[in-house]
Every structure is written in structure tokens, then in C-alpha cells.
Amino acid sequence: MSEIRLLLADDQALVRGALAALLELEPDIVVVSQVGRGDEVVDAARESRADVCLLDIEMPGMTGIEAAAELRRDVPGARSLIVTTFGRPGYLRRAVDAGASGFVVKDTPASQLADAVRRVHAGLRVIDPTLATESLTAGDSPLTERETDVLRAALDGATVAAIAREVHLSPGTVRNYLSSAMGKTGTDTRAQAAQVARERGWL
Fold first, then answer.
1. Do residues 5 and 50 lie in contact, with contact meaning Cβ atoms separated by under 8 Å?
2. C-alpha 47: how far from chain center
3. For the chain: N or C, fewer Cβ within 10 A?
4. Interior CA angle at 104 toward 99 and 109, to 5°?
5. What is the pLDDT of residues 122-140, one digit of tens each?
6. How buried is residue 176: exposed, middle or buried, by Cβ count under 10 Å (0-12/13-18/19+)?
7. How many other C-beta atoms lie within 10 A of the C-beta of residue 73?
8. Whole-model pTM?
9. How, if at all, do strands 52-55 and 4-9 pair?
């Protein structure tokens, strides 16, 4: 039985430790690296020669989806498996587009998670079946790339002027993008639009 070298990336140390303890009970899986930030994934994967990287989505520095895209580009020998609390259809689509080989939620039983690691290592794609169905039903994000950027900047309640500075656009253009995004999300304020887009996994 060949050994699978596994990297764990999660900003919650307790979750990371629990996953490591459970997965190392498997005879063919060894945890070779653990990181708590998304922007540490690529270097850690390269240094540890990880075969599979388990990535949480929401981490400081870089999201797990962004890390998966960087892995595909910079460490193509390492496959990525998104393991997240947030089972949102929009996240699934973005993860697959970024090159992730799998997407499962954190309440997946340990034996199934270990099997997902093995399947991803074997070159297969593993997707939570319920989430796959929801993703097909939900459809793609209706937001343009610029609308997504503007809403992401609006998540923390920033003013139009602050958003404009962050995304390098004029305040008038930002207002237009916000208005369009509010229409597409069926909301009345930019804060509501940002929240809806986040809940649907579009940001």
C-alpha cells in the first residue's frame, strides 16, 4: 500500500489537530505538514512534497479556493481537496474552476474523508453529492468579476469612497456596480447584497 503524503490547511488549530489525529489512524495516510494560513499552502506543499492538500475555504492570507488555484499552477503534483463548514453551491463551482479535485463538508465521517483523500490521490474527483445537486440547481453566479470585487470590498461595511480606493475605480462607477449587484441579488442595500452573495458562495 503506497503512502499518501497529506498537508492540512485550516486556521482553527483544534480542527486541524483533530483532522490530523483522525487521518493518521489510517495505515496509508501520513500528515506531513500543517498550516493555518492560505498563503502558506504552496510553500508548505512544495517543501513537504505533499500528494494531497486538504484546504479549508476561509483562512487568513488567502482562501482555500485561491490556494487551490496556486497549487495547480505552482505545484501541479499536489492535488487539492476542499474540506469546509460552508457547503455553498457557489463555493463548489469556484473550487472546481480553481482546479480542486474534491469538495466535501467537515461533518463528513472520518472513514469517508479518508476515502476521499485516497480517491483524489488516485486522480479521481470527489464531490459531496448533496452539494453537487444544489450546485446544478443554483446555477452560476450572475455577478460580473467587477461586481464581485466591489461586493467583496463592501462586506465589512466600507463606504463607497473606501471601496473605490480599494478596487481602483471612481466612486460613481462603484455605485453603478453596487446598484447592479443589488438588482441581481434582489436586495435594497450594498450590505445586504454582499451578505446574500457571500451566503450563496459567490464571493
1. yes
2. 22
3. N
4. 150
5. 999 998 876 665 655 555 6
6. middle
7. 11
8. 0.68
9. parallel
